[in-house]
Amino acid sequence: MKKELIKKIIFVSLILSVVFWQVSWAQEAPLQVLIADEGNVVLDKNVHLPEEGMLSVTDTQGNSQDINAKSVLAVLYALDEIDDTFTISDLVYYPSFSAFYLKCIVLSGEEKCNYWLYKVNDDAPSVGMDSFILSGGEKVEIYFDSGFFGGGEEDPEPEVVEDPPEEEEGSTGGGSGSRKRRKTPEPAPEEEVAQPVAALVPAVTTTTPPEPPAAQKIAKAEPAIEKVAEIPVSEPAPIELSAIATESGNSPKIPIIFAGLLAFLVLIFLGRRFLKNN
């Protein structure tokens, strides 16, 4: 009786060890970290996911803050300390948001600023780098794209509305002679005034010249610029913080768990046959 009990205990312990090992392996799968500049991959490296805990990150002003060691920013910050391919040159911390903003990275001696974005498994998260928590096995791409916010595009030249061309008109009135004047879009009506003169001088009808046209302003057509997003100058756009892991959070890989359960059932079946034969 004791012999059978010992066999069962050993058998169950073996099964539990296999299951826990598979779950642990799924959670600690290496990360693929890529850094790209305008579509050109500068760094492609596999790194191990850090253990649970906090990592102290220092901003450009020398102030340190603790963030989750499994966040995207923590992985990039730790990689910067051991790899010379890139250097984080400007990292800003905003106390009002309790969040970091990755502003500048130096690549091949050239500093790239303001247009750093990131993807996880080809999806762009809606939270900052310091808030997205990794679980292992993800593909993390940190890339510089100056055209994402419409940067680098030249504004079109504004259209200029010219004044209407001058037109010549003949004179009206017998004794005033001919004269030239500019025709405005809506000229004022002309009035004829009869001036009384001496009896020996025939009446002469004169035409009052119209007032000079008012100076017209040149209308400049402002180019319609589609506003996609804004780059923060003094403070960045609010960053949504999330303390809960996303779908790629700490949940183990479902196919691996199924494989572990299948192995568990197979081992139970073999164990029962073994015990039955003995």
User: Radius of gyration, Cα only, in angstroms?
Assistant: 40 Å
Q: What is the third-level CATH name, the topology of the domain at 30-151 and 228-251?
A: Ferric Hydroxamate Uptake Protein, Chain A, domain 1
Order of helices and strands: HEEEEHEEEEEEEH
- The SS-based structural class is alpha+beta
Sheet with the most strands, sense and barrel status: 4 strands, mixed
Distance between the termini: 12 Å
List low-pLDDT spans: 152-161, 168-181, 196-204, 239-250
CATH class of the domain at 30-151 and 228-251: Mainly Beta
- Counted by DSSP, the helix tally is 3
| Quaternary assembly | single chain
SS strand fraction: 15-25%
**General form:** elongated
Mean pLDDT across all residues, rounded?
73
- Provide the helix percentage: 10-25%
CATH-derived architecture of the domain at 30-151 and 228-251: Beta Complex
- Count the E strands: 11
Widest sheet: strand ordering: 2-1-9-8
